[in-house]
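User: Could you check the structure of this?
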Amino acid sequence: VEDQRARWERKRSRTAKELLETEHRYLEQLDLVLTYFVTILKAKGTLKPAVLETIFGPLESLYSASHVLSLHLEKGNLGPGLENFCQSLDLYGHYAENLEHANKTLKEQVRKNKSFRRFKKLQETRPQFQGRQLEDLLPLPLQRLHQYKHFFRDLLENTSPDTAEYQKLA
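Assistant: Sure, the predicted structure tokens are below.
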């Protein structure tokens, strides 16, 4: 029994560590989009606010929710971090529902708006983007949501059922 509990704890620790590491990478990628696209486009006025909202949706709020989650994870507060994060899941739903429309609007702006087309091309050539285009980065929240599902399941499987954290994970 002690050996089994020790194995569970090791697996749980590894999963929690991997969740934190991948959360940091995810935040870095979202930060690229927010810094080099959303913030600058808002300041320059290259796109109308409604078009900007259509393309990027609640990306800033998703970043904020993940940032808070990462702070909880860094402190080892897995249960409260996940509980707090779950309140943001509706943002992911909204983002998912809008992604197809966002991509259509992005393509339309690239085709019709010369200054946006130039701006987008310039931003994507920055070394931070490592050859990725905006179209590659917009689906990241949905990909991350899928990863969360697996992380949380793995954490649940390796958490003792008689702990308070098990109930929160469940």
